[in-house]
From TrEMBL:
This is Spermidine/putrescine ABC transporter ATP-binding protein. Residues 10-240 form the ABC transporter domain. It comes from Suicoccus acidiformans. SMART domains: AAA. GO terms for molecular function: ATP binding; ATP hydrolysis activity.
Amino acid sequence: MRENLSNYSVVLEGVSKNYGDQQILKQVDLQLEQGKFYTLLGPSGCGKTTILNLIAGFTEASEGVIYLNNQRVNEVPANQRQVNTVFQNYSLFPHLNVYDNVAFGLAIQGRPKAEIQKEVDQALAMVELSGFQKRPIEALSGGQQQRVAIARAIVNKPDVLLLDEPFSALDMKLRKAMQVELRELQQSLGITFVFVTHDQEEALAMSDWIFVMEAGRIVQSGLPTDIYDEPVNRYVAEFIGESNILPATMVADYEVNFAGQTFACSDAGIPAGESVEVVIRPEDLQVTEPGQGVVDATVETVLFRGVFNELIAVDAQDYRWKVHTTARVEPEDFIGLNIGPHDIHVMRFNESEEAFDARIEQYSVGGESDE
Ligand SMILES: Nc1ncnc2c1ncn2[C@@H]1O[C@H](COP(=O)(O)OP(=O)(O)OP(=O)(O)O)[C@@H](O)[C@H]1O
């Protein structure tokens, strides 16, 4: 396996991490290509930060091997790895000004003053803070402090930049602006970013490739569009966006039965007769006249969301459909709902542990989709 990994800047092979008798990471495999934006996405406590700490060298793996640029680094101390971290709380030195914060690492290495100045000015320009050199840290906004933290991390020209929920202290508007900036910065630097978040929208918007985690394991990995359109199970579907999830039965290849009817569907490979679940995203349902769609339903609630209306509509079998539509609809309206076959995605139900292991094996490889 190893000889094919020379293009990867980070590789984790069968990495587990235990604290006492608690297994925090379970056999994690990751292969991260040079120069891409990767996101580890999952709820609090699933082990995202632990993966960053292992890559950075802040903690040791209980089992498995970690490679950086094709070199085994399990025994290499943090300060000798070409990796920098931007922490959630920025960890800036409050008594130093912007320049000294960014220069700190280079000064410790004993680099010549003129060189440090050039590098720091360049890093500050990358994060659009030229002219802020003399500012005390406390005289900066949250967003500016965030940029200083990024400048301090990139000034060392690391091969890999780890970012642990770097936007959590920012308000929504600034967060969105920083998402765009960080993505642009990553593209211009061309270094590998490993970004940790529990915010699915952030992950979808920024990443080349997403790893979805649950309780110390990677349950799915893929392009943002794959993760959104083809979640492998209910956990991923519910974690990534809103969804309608219905119990269903496979009738044949490309045919699935739910809500009392048989539908063409875009997924196959599951034997006829098997119980599955289907996921349908709220924006994929079209509101029509009653009788014109695949199911009729009575509108229960309408929430105005600005660019669309969010409806709950109840069908004859008491299923409560979530619908995002630009149609004008009122509570108590009787409507039809239509679904295209490509918008019905089948998910395996009650998967055995062995089947799960076999499936995540193929999902734990990062990089281009081979589709
Ligand atoms: N030093 C430690 N000793 C014992 N348990 C730890 C230690 N560090 C982390 N853990 C536990 O490991 C689990 C995973 O923690 P981790 O910080 O990796 O999660 P996370 O997905 O990054 O969550 P969050 O989004 O809340 O930071 C948690 O249950 C945490 O309590």
